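Protein modeling request. Please complete all fields; requests missing the sequence field cannot be processed.
Requester role: graduate student
Desired output: 3D structure, token encoding
Chains: 1
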Amino acid sequence: MADAVTIEAEAKAKANYLISKSLTPDLLKLEQIQVQGKFNDALKENKDAKIFLTPGGSTPNIWVDMKDSQRKASLAN
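Delivered output (77 residues):
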């Protein structure tokens, strides 16, 4: 079992390395634009949604669906 965990961890590390090498500033900008478009579409559906923008765009935005009363209550606490 330990060997399987090691093999899986090494495979994930290699995959992460390959992904990191493929990322370019232009590709990241494109991804940010696409995500912003999804948020804009979501706001058309739900005017009560809250979007928290992170500075610099280096981390993902967070969208909280405020129509969900349970989630709304948990955020208030």
